[in-house]
Amino acid sequence: MLTDALIITRREVRDSLRDWRIVAPILILTLIFPWIMNLSTRLAIAFVEEYNATIIPLRLIPFAVMIVGFFPISFSLIIALETFVGEKERNSLEPLLDTPISDASLYLGKLLAAMIPPLFASYLGVAAYLIGLYLTIQYVPEWIILLQIILLTTMEAIVMVSGAVVVSSHTTSVRAANLLASFIIIPMSFLLQAESILLFWGQYDVLWYILAALFVADVLLIRTGIRTFNREEILAREIDELNLGYMLRTFRQFFIGARFSLVRIYRDDVPRLLRENRLALATVLAALSLALIGGWFFASRYPLPAELIGSIKINPEMLRQQTAFQGNSLLPRLDVGTIFFYNLRSLLGFAALGLFSFGSLACLPMVTTMGLVGFLFGEARLFGAEGIVFLIAALVPHGIVELPAAILATAFALRAGASIIAPPPGVTAGENLLRALADFVKIILFVVLPLLFIAALIEVNVTPQILMWMYGR
Amino acid sequence: MPPLIETSELTKQFDTLTAVDHLTFNVAEGEILALLGPNGAGKTTTVRMLSSILKPTGGSARIAGRDVVRDARTVRHLIGHLTEFPGLYLRMRPLEYLDFFGELQKMPRATRRARAEELLRQFDLWDARNRRLGEFSKGMRQKMALIRAMLHAPRVLFLDEPTSAMDPHSAKQVRDAIATLRGSGHTIFLCTHNLYEAESLADHIAVIRRGKLIAFGTPAQLKRDLLGPPIWELRLARPLSAPWPYLDGHLRVASSDDWSLQYHTETPESTNPLLLRRLQEIGAAVLTLHETPRSLEDVYLKLVQ
Ligand SMILES: Nc1ncnc2c1ncn2[C@@H]1O[C@H](COP(=O)(O)OP(=O)(O)OP(=O)(O)O)[C@@H](O)[C@H]1O
Ligand SMILES: [Mg+2]
Fold first, then answer.
1. Quick one: pLDDT band at residue A330, thresholds 50, 70, 90?
2. Is A229 found in the same domain as A256?
């Protein structure tokens, strides 16, 4: 498999090196840009040394290394996005598909070809920058940080390129592929910002976690890429799905079908969607359970200080005070509408985030919430049974409605995000995304919204009554 | 011996359009089949399914007994495909380009080099071997693509409009190459709009329209079926003084005058000598006797209109 793949890779790399439109920017980014960075690093160091802030340059240089390494990669995204659609538009893909090479080898060969030049350029850039620094200010980087940054750059390159190649193998035109590339660039720029902050803070340990996460993302992207690549479908797609009318029609078709019918939505569509999205639901449930357990263990490892616990006693007196002071609510005074819209907004916000991160960030709000709940229960255990009962009374009545709503929203956001990189056979990436979005909207509108509303009602009207009834005697 | 190309109810549906609609036909080993049809009839789609790069949505097809879906890799090895568009890598040079495809077809290095040279010379491209493919003219590119398809000496060759961009000389080179390949036992599936080419090369002709097979047969069969039995024409050197001997029951006269006779006959092999003998008996000076040429074009136009 690899031998065949390498035939493709060799040809493409050679071809890229002959294209001055690729070579020139790479050379500029790898040789001239590091030199400019070197200059600005020295300026910055000179500047901060005037103020005796010697710690800053030490933090600045790893950051600069990262930037120097990242630039050629971001540029090379364009090449990666072209791998399949570009060749298809130039008609040179069909002869290649005619050869006996296997789908996997073909995909792998092209993936490697898209990966090697940018990685090479990136390493070259880092080397040029570091050599420059050594020659000018005799700076020698700490090897472990350097290793981290190089690994990070490599992993990021693989994520971006393999994501781009997936997009490229599932779109119908270079234009469509370029537009879909924002789904790669946006999460990557978030990541880069996070990494910069970590580097400035000197939180080098956290970088290992990011590395591990990137590694998982790499494996997933390459695997889905190979698994969903199907040469028999590439030439079967001609219609450019980035046409607004077509998009609206397709969306409408997925969303409403032939005729709108509320009965049919609840009777057929919702059960079918739940069935079809078992995997996403299971994933979310698993993540939540893990978060819950994690929170619990975190609480046992870091119990609140005993004196603090001693001072908090749930007693009728406290509740009565609260009640007298605030009317009938234990919680900050909120009405149904506020709670409802707050919950809705946070779910939708993170769903959007999920969409732009292949689904991975969709779980974030739920995971943190459940982690917190686990933590609360863990701490509450220290109050004895009474603490747990209190939490159950305070959280369960509305939670039992709100939780399924949140799980559904999260699972469908996850699926919509993931659909970009893993369309099922016979469906284009765009079509699949539209369908996932239509499903998402359907579930939000017809299931999640009503549930959230009920939960908000319970939280405002029922929970305080229960608490009053239990403790207020 | 089973046919080399077999299709059975082969169908391809694109969304709402049925591009290929229940095609069933066979091509025997060593034959040339010409597939004709107006633009958009489904020729390219058929070829793409037969070369295992488009999946049929219905029916099946086999190449040398191998199913085009299940044994796709073997099929791709057995066939060569001149694609509708040459689709060359324009930054490469001819030898390098052919070497790449030869390697993908698992040809040993020396063989692919020798074969590339042989074919480049055959198609007059050897002198251009150091130029980049991007500098090639349209016809040269098409020839390169043809060489690519023939490189690994495939048992079946699919040619999608092989001479569409070529000058008459190059087109003849290609036709000669096709005839030679046929002579050496290759099976050729030819899509073309050039009816002369189809008629002079093909053993069988298939005509499709809107994905459906509307005619299949040898050129002679098609002509007979669609245009009726052939017309024979006899010309004299000087006007006939006696009436024409009509040979009752053997021929039907289409038209006649003192100088010439046009007629149909079911049995030309016996009728024609008999007619000549009679004419000799009455002292007529026969100049020529021949079948009036009827072009495939007439057949084709009759079919697709
Ligand atoms: N990938 C595709 N998606 C949708 N429709 C397609 C696709 N490929 C071909 N078609 C349609 O299928 C029909 C047959 O096309 P095909 O290219 O096979 O015709 P053809 O006989 O080769 O025509 P030509 O003589 O112009 O080359 C056409 O109507 C075409 O628009
Ligand atoms: Mg065609």
1. very low
2. no
Answer for the pair A420, A437: CB distance below 8 angstroms, yes or no.
Answer: no
A18, A95, A236 member nearest B54 (Cβ): A236
A81, A181 contact by CB (below 8 A) = yes
Residue B120 identity (one-letter amino acid): L
Does residue A245 fall inside a structural domain?
no
- Last residue in a domain, options A236, A264, A286: A236
- The number of the ligand nearest the C-alpha atom of B42 reads 1
- Which of the ligands is closest to the CA of residue B41? 1
Tokens 């036909």 identify what position? B25
Ligand 1, atom nearest to B20 Cα: 14
Instruction: Name the strand (E) or helix (H) holding B34.
Output: strand B32-36
Considering the domain architecture, whether residues A305 and A386 belong to the same structural domain is answered as yes
> Hey, what are A220's tokens?
């997933």
d(CA B209, CA A66): 61
As beta bridge partners, residue B18 has B13
DSSP β-bridge partners for residue B80: B157
B257-274: burial string, b at 16+ Cβ within 10 Å, e else: eeebbebebeebeebbee
* Positions of chain B with pLDDT under 50: none
How many domains does chain A fold into? 2
Give the residues across from A354 on adjacent strands. Answer: none
Q: What is the pLDDT of residue B140?
A: 92
Q: Residue A394 sits in which domain range? A: 250-471
Secondary structure of residue B213 in the 3-state scheme: strand
* pTM for the structure as a whole: 0.76
Closest CA to A221 of A161, A299, A288: A161
User: Helices in chain B by DSSP H: which ranges?
Assistant: 43-50, 72-78, 94-104, 109-122, 138-150, 168-183, 195-201, 219-227, 268-281, 296-304
Beta bridge partners of B20: B12
Q: How far apart are CA A182 and CA A310, in angstroms?
A: 53
Question: A63 near A198, Cβ under 8 Å?
Answer: no
CB pairs under 8 A between A and B: 69
Q: How many CA atoms lie within 13 A of A368 on its CB side?
A: 7
- Tell me if residue A261 falls in helix, strand or coil: coil
Q: For residue A49, what are the contacts with CB-CB under 8 A and spacing of at least 6?
A: A57
Verify that A225 and A308 share a domain, yes or no: no
Which amino acid residue places its CA nearest to atom 18 of ligand 1?
B42
Q: Which of A174, A207, A236 is the last residue of a domain?
A: A236
CB contact under 8 A, B87 and A90: yes
Secondary structure letter of residue A256 according to DSSP:
T
| Within a domain: A286 | yes
Q: How far, in Å, from the CA of A194 to the mean position of ligand 1? A: 49
User: In this structure, which residue's CA is closest to atom 9 in ligand 1?
Assistant: B45
User: In the structure, what pLDDT confidence band is assigned to residue A323 with cuts at 50, 70 and 90?
Assistant: very low
**Distance in Å, alpha carbon of A175 to nearest chain B alpha carbon:** 20
Instruction: Mark residue B211 as left, alpha or beta (left: phi above 0; alpha: psi -120 to 50; beta: remaining).
Output: left
* Beta strand pairing call for B58-63 and B66-67: antiparallel
Same domain assignment for residues A345 and A459: yes
Same domain, A325 and A369: yes
Same domain, A218 and A255: no
* pLDDT tens-digit series, residues A248-298: 777 777 777 767 777 877 888 888 888 888 888 888 888 888 888 888 887
In a domain, residue A273? The reply is yes
Given a cut of 70, whether residue A313 has pLDDT beyond it is no
Q: Is any atom of ligand 1 closer than 6 Å to the C-beta of B85? A: no
Same domain, yes or no: A415 and A269:
yes
Phi, psi of B21 (to 5 degrees): -125, 95
Across the interface, which of B48, B73, B89 has its CB nearest the CB of A102? B73
What is the greatest pairwise CA distance in chain A?
84
A431 inside domain = yes
